[in-house]
Each structure stands twice: as C-alpha cells, then as structure tokens.
Amino acid sequence: MRRTSRARTIAASGVLRAAVVFLATFVLAGCASVVRIAYNNSDVAVRMMANEYFDLQGEQADLFKVRLTRLHEWHRLEELPRYAQALDSAAVRVQRGATRADVAWAVATIRARYQALASQAVDESVAVLVTLSPANITALEKKFAESNRKFAKEFLDGDRAEREARRIDAITDRLEEWLGSLSGEQRRLIADYVRTQPANQALRLADRKARQREFVELLQRERNAPALRASLRAVFVEYEAQRGPEYARVWSEWQERMITLVTEILAAASPAQRQYAAARLRSYADDFRALADEGRARLPSGTRAAQETAHPGT
Is pLDDT at 12 greater than 70 in this prediction? Predict the structure, then answer.
C-alpha cells in the first residue's frame, strides 16, 4: 500500500483535521477488504492522533471517544452513500473521456463533502475542546512545531532538483494507483507541471503557521461552547474565506494548474487506462455502499445523535 502515511498528514489541525481521516479511504490502495477494515477501524486511528496532538486524559478521552463514535455513525449512514454516488458518476465520466468540466466537478464535489464533514466534526468536538487545559494546549503547540519542522524539511530543505524528483514520484505513484502504468507522455506532463510550479512553499508554511496560531488562540480565548462552535465553523468550514489575499491568489492558481494537469493526463489516457480507473472507482463505490449497509443494519433507527435530536433527554 503506497499511501500508508496519507492519514497522518490529515491531522495537521488537531481534532477537527483528525476527523477527516475518514476521507483517506478514497486513496487507500488494495482489495475491498482493506478499505472496509481501514474504515471500520479509523476511529482508533483518530483517537491516537487526537492523543498525539492534545494528550487527552481521563474524562476528556472518554468524552472524545463518545463524540467520535457519533461522528463515525453519522459519516457511515449519511456521507458514504453520497461518496458512492459521486464515485459512480466519476466512473461514467472517466470511461467516456473526462473533460476539464468533469475534473472541476470532482474538485467541487470533494470540497462540498469536506465542508459537510468539517461542519459535523465541529459540532461533535466542541464539547471536548472547551475542556482543554493549559497542558493540553502546550501539547498541541509542541505537535504543531514538530509537524512544521517536518514540512520545512520536506518542502524547503535540500536541493531543489531532489525535491522536484520526490514530487514527481509522488504524483506518478498516486495517478498510477488509479490509471495503472503511465505512458511516457503522461510522465512528461507530470514532470513539466512540477518543474514549472512556482516556488510557494515558504508562503504555504507561513499560512500554515498563521492558522495554527489562530486555532490555539481561539481555544485559549473562547470557553463558551456556542461561541466556540461559531468560530470553529469559520475556521474549518468556511476556510477558503479565511485565506490572506496573496495566499488565496496562489491557492487559486495552484488549483487551476492541478485541474489542467489532471485533465491533460486523462485526455492522454488509453482505453485500457480509462477502463481500469472506472472499475476502480466503482469498486470503491461498492465498498462505501456495503459499509453504509452495515451501519443501517446495526442502527436501524438512525444515529444516536439523530435520535437525541428527535427525542431530547432520552
């Protein structure tokens, strides 16, 4: 499995980012059973990440486990069917020959699903976040510093040619998971994209640190759950509106370049590659439907959170 470290990178902003580990099932490689086992055990991975970032203790850890269970239930019953539907649509688009509009649709779909997940994660995590002590905040700051050092080492240190080579290999590996072996033309497109990419890593790191400081200051300042919820929604759900003007411009340009690259790669795909990708997308759709069915069998009346909303006080 080439993407075994993918889930760790998602945890960059603590509990809320850790929750997004569920989305990592999109990029897991391997047989159907691997995807289902990974998803069914993803709550354990998230609890481990949360402990790494916050060093949760006693009642905090117990409350986080309860809230994470609710989030996982919601995600399984509400979101996985949407993922399956989107993947089926993507398979049709890829098999017939995906256009730039199709790639842009995929980006918009992923953004919408992330926002839905982030919104639900905010609602479930607030009860834990208002309990954080100075020791928890110190643990978070130490973890942020560690992750920033790793980011700088990977993207800023060393020879540029070496960094570009690693980036080319990473993109090639990711695309080959979905298309199979790439052609020489497709590999050239990736190399050209990486080598002409503007050097914006320092700006990315600065934005990353600014968001981390904002998150820490918010946790230190706001101890009222409703107010904290509203602030966290602004940070994690409406995140695009929080970018500074320069970084917003760089991000928009990067996204357009990435859409162009994927469009060109798919335009150069052989019929066999398109068939391979479509089959893989449908396989993941089947996995997500099966996981959702498992949840409906265990929770025929819906999630615990939904039941509490319908019958408060029960």
Answer: no
Length of the chain: 314
> Does any domain span residue 1?
no
d(CA 11, CA 15): 7
Q: Which of 29, 9, 6, 10 is nearest to 19 (CA)?
A: 10
Instruction: Quote the pLDDT of residue 163.
Output: 87
| Best CA proximity match to 155, nearest among 202, 196, 191 | 202
The parent domain of residue 250 ranges over 6-310
The answer to which of 64-68, 75-79, 135-139, 154-158 has the lowest mean pLDDT is 154-158
The pTM of this model reads 0.83
Give the C-alpha separation, 140 to 146, whole Å.
10
Distance (Å, rounded) from C-alpha 269 to C-alpha 261? Answer: 12
* pLDDT band, very low/low/confident/very high, at 3 (cuts 50, 70, 90): very low
In a domain, 60, yes or no: yes
Task: Please name the residue ranges forming H helices in 130-159.
Answer: 134-155
Rg (CA), the chain: 20
Query: CA 152 to CA 42: how far, in whole Å?
Result: 28
C-alpha–C-alpha distance, residues 20 and 121, integer Å: 8
d(Cα 72, Cα 76) in Å, to the nearest integer? 6
Q: Are residues 11 and 49 in contact, defined by beta-carbon separation less than 8 angstroms?
A: yes
**What total number of domains does the chain contain?**
1
Give every CB contact of residue 69 below 8 A, 6+ residues apart in sequence: 43, 304
